[in-house]
Amino acid sequence: MATATNERLLTLNHEIRIAEHSLNKARNRRKQSNFSFAFGPILLIILYGIAWIHAIPRIVLAAVYIPAAPVVVGFIIAAFYLKWRPGFPDIDPEDGSRIYVSEGDLELKLARLRDTKKVLLADANTPTKVRRVAYKEDAGGDIDQLRSESTYYRRVNNLLQGVLIIGSLAATGVAGVATQVPAMRWVIMGITFTVGISSGFMGYFKYKERSFYLQQTADAIEQELEAVEIGVGRYKRYYDDGDEDKALAEFVEEVHRLKSEQRKRQQNLEQPPEARSTNE
Question: What's the burial of 24, exposed, middle or buried (CB within 10 Å: 0-12/13-18/19+)?
């Protein structure tokens, strides 16, 4: 009975990870399509507006348009393709043709698999050790998810930080040209506005702190997972006594504590700055 339950749990874990990967892929395609759909026309409008500034020399316009025009075309093509083919690209098992599974279908499939796993673990005949082993196996997926979120927030922070640095330097450089080209004052205003938005978003949403805490939690869980698998650190005494069940129980308790602390830090970061400072 226990062997069949373990095999069923392993199969469910594998199917859940495949569904999670497919759903993340579909969501990334949607984000890419939205970004291309928004950034392509915006860049096209900017290039069109620059063409009406007669004070800019033609050689400067050519230097801007030659690399920018293919970029605009690429964004427009990408937006059209991703909007036309949304979802996760997959193979139809019946005829082998290419199909695109929508996010809604993937979310329903993932929810159904997780419900099936909950029913299996909630069965009174399922031993406690099996449940703890399943929790330990899920730790790898939790690590990947935490690191994925950390990477996302780090990229957003790096992007905003780059806009802040480049925008500040560009505003200073354009300010020196604005005395000879009055139209450049509008460029300075646009750059300053963009820098202000980037600075405000970085200060309010705390992308750097979010990324740091997520990565810290992922590293801590990974360290505990490696320690319990090879029997070192706090788990060494249990393996020396031949009591792996207690080692597994302590691992589950520690990982649960790390996740709870991460949720508390996340909730604290999502509060307004004034409430955040009060809690601290």
Answer: middle
Mean pLDDT for the stretch of residues 193-207: 85
Question: Do residues 69 and 61 make contact, with C-beta atoms less than 8 angstroms apart?
Answer: no
User: Is-contact 174 191, C-beta < 8 A?
Assistant: yes
Alpha helices of 85-235 — where are they, by DSSP H? 103-122, 128-178, 184-205, 207-230
Domain definitions of the chain by residue range? 1-125, 127-280
- Residue of 147, 131, 125, 121 lying closest to 251 (CA atoms): 131
B/e letters for 186-203, b = 16+ CB within 10 Å, e = fewer, are ebbeebbebbeebbebbe
Q: Could you tell me if 150 and 218 are in contact, meaning their C-beta atoms sit under 8 angstroms apart?
A: yes
Torsion of CA 73, 82, 31, 39, to 10 degrees: 20
The set of residues, in sequence order, having a beta carbon less than 8 Å from that of 234 and lying 6+ positions away, is 227, 250, 254
pLDDT tier at 108, thresholds 50, 70, 90: very high
Angle between helix axes 128-178 and 103-122 (nearest 10 degrees) is 150
**Angstrom distance (rounded) from CA 221 to CA 215:** 10
Q: Enter the DSSP assignment of 165.
A: H
Contact 253, 235 (CB under 8 A): no
pLDDT of res. 221: 93
